[in-house]
Each structure stands twice: as C-alpha cells, then as structure tokens.
Amino acid sequence: MATERYSEAHRRSLLMKTIKIVYFKPKPEYFEHYVEALKKSSPESYVFTRDDEVIEIWLQPSVEKLAEQQSKALDWLDDHRYMLKEYPPEVGHTRPYTAFGEQEPSYVTEQN
After folding, report:
1. Burial, 15: exposed, middle or buried (Cβ in 10 Å; 0-12, 13-18, 19+)?
2. pTM metric for this prediction
3. Over the chain, what HEC string results?
4. In whole angstroms, what is the distance from residue 93 CA to residue 9 CA?
5. What angle do CA 69, 16, 65 make, to 5 degrees?
6. Are 66 and 98 in contact (CB under 8 A)?
7. Mean pLDDT, residues 69-73 taken together
C-alpha cells in the first residue's frame, strides 16, 4: 500500500486536504468577460475552460480553509449570476463538487 511509506502525521495531513471544483456555464456573450472576472477575483484558484464551461478548482490544506472563503465566493457569484446559463433547475447556476485527499502525486511527496 502506497501510504505505508508515510508517517501517520503525513497521512492525517493529506486526508485533510480538500479540493473544490465548480463548473460554470457562462452565456456566450459573457464568456470571456466571466473568465477574466473570475481570474481577477480568485488568484489562488485554478481556472480552466472546456467547450462552453468554465471550471474553477481550489486546492486547500483543510476543509476549514475552504469554508473561510465560501461567503466571499457566494457574494461574488451573486454579483455575476446574470452572466451564467442555468444548468437544469435542480442544479442551478453552478455544479460544485468537494472531495477530500486520499493520495498526493509522487512528484509532490518526493519534493517534501
């Protein structure tokens, strides 16, 4: 098992790492403006585009760090919601996913 070579403290710290992935679907006329506004408001996140979607990825050392930024992120989203297409009504204007770290890539752990 890959985690056997790591200390218990390292495994616990790894398990606390949290990733938040949010998919957005800007209206075509706002696509570039939305991407630029998102990049400006979130310099600590990854921003990717694929077809007609924008994907924002946050990698945080803990779920608490992720929670700290949530209020600000929701306020920003409220201000920019008019630029977004809605996914099916039961989903809304975003498709958010949160997950917890189980393993880091070997190139990361070898650097530490």
Report:
1. middle
2. 0.78
3. CHHHHCCHHHHHHHHHCEEEEEEECECHHHHHHHHHHHHHHCCCCEEEEECCEEEEEEEECCHHHHHHHHHHHHHHHHHHHHHECCCCCCCCCEEEEEEECCCCCHHHHHHC
4. 39
5. 15
6. yes
7. 86
Q: How far apart are CA 17 and CA 35, in angstroms?
A: 26
Q: How confident is the model at residue 64 (pLDDT cuts 50, 70, 90)?
A: confident
Answer yes or no: are the C-beta atoms of 37 and 79 closer than 8 Å. no
Report yes or no: 86 and 93 within 8 Å, Cβ to Cβ.
yes
